[in-house]
Amino acid sequence: MQRVHNFNAGPSAMPLAVLQKVQAEFLDFAGTGMSIVEISHRSERYQQLQEETKQTLRRLLHIPDGYHIIFLQGGGSLQFVMHSANFLRRRGAYVNTGVWSDKAMAAAAAYGEVYEAASSKKDGFSYIPRLTEGAIREATDYLYITSNNTIHGTQWASYPKVSVPLFGDVSSDFLSRPIPIERFDFLFAGAQKNIGPAGVVVAIIKDSLVAGANPDVPAMLRYDTYVKHDSVYNTPPVFAIYFIHEVLQWLEREGGPEEMARRNERKAAMIYEVIDDSDGFYRGHADKNSRSRMNITFNLPTSAYEEAFIRESEQHHFVGLKGHRSLGGCRASLYNAVTEESCTALAQFMKTFRKNH
Ligand code: PMP
């Protein structure tokens, strides 16, 4: 078996130790004599697993009292609908930093007035725009941001302080660094980057926000349904939640988001250094002060070079370096499970490729 250097943008690399543990206990989960995919979501054993998952997340992110952790399906894309169906009464403000915030805003327009409080759209989403004085209009229900922009490779360095509830799509940098939960009223993350397989979304939601949600929304799309039923109103994605449980245990052993932030900083620096020292052969898409530690986006001198780069990278067991179809170019995604060894190998490959071409 040869494991590749996996730079996929999501679904993406998972910690090897977790994959091995999942494999080892796949036929007999915790002495039950059954696989995790064979046990009832109403069983005590599952309830215990889900509770442990929540408690570990609470510890890792220092989630204060007054916030609920819930598990939802439908991906990040359903959250584009749900946040607005539940909470958009008057106006929703959006910081438009890429394809995913654009989509969230478009979905929300079905439920009320939406507007861009700030945007970098006209500049190809190459930076995180500043929120200017007066950017948030009166009668605004919330400000929505995307903490890390998976496609364009930008990331908020610190979060805005605003007088309206702050909502965050933290899908692509969840648990890659500490996050001040108390500054947000609502956060969600699709699992399939840093924390597990596709099929589950983790949301952290303030009690007071849930209480004020629109009561006319169908039960399956209401956050209070998931809160009241502790995420088992219907059958939850048991395997995906179990997998998250294992990733969180791994994260805790490794030193949590604080240690991940240090590693991710070092990993990203290796690749950005190659870009910056390449005399313009590699050109980063993001402005330097908006650069993402998770998704590094760059171009080569021509698309022919880019095609050769992808082709040769695959021959050297690198996977996932092609940019998203909406932006083109190249992208390396360095989520928590991508090792420093893989990043060192990529940096070396990039240097060698430049020398040979
Ligand atoms: N938000 C962000 C930041 C994303 O990167 C993505 C894509 N993985 C989504 C939302 C949409 O997620 P999904 O494909 O699970 O609907």
The CATH topology assignment of the largest domain is Aspartate Aminotransferase, domain 2
**What's the number of domains?**
2
Cofactors and ligands: 4'-deoxy-4'-aminopyridoxal-5'-phosphate
Please give the CATH class of the largest domain: Alpha Beta
| Main beta sheet | 7 strands, mixed
The low-confidence parts are none
Rg computed from alpha carbons, rounded to a whole number of angstroms: 21 Å
Q: In terms of structural class, how would the helical and strand content be classed?
A: alpha/beta
CATH superfamily of the largest domain: Type I PLP-dependent aspartate aminotransferase-like (Major domain)
Shape: globular
Strand arrangement across the biggest beta sheet: 2-10-9-8-5-3-4
Q: Note the beta-strand portion.
A: 15-25%
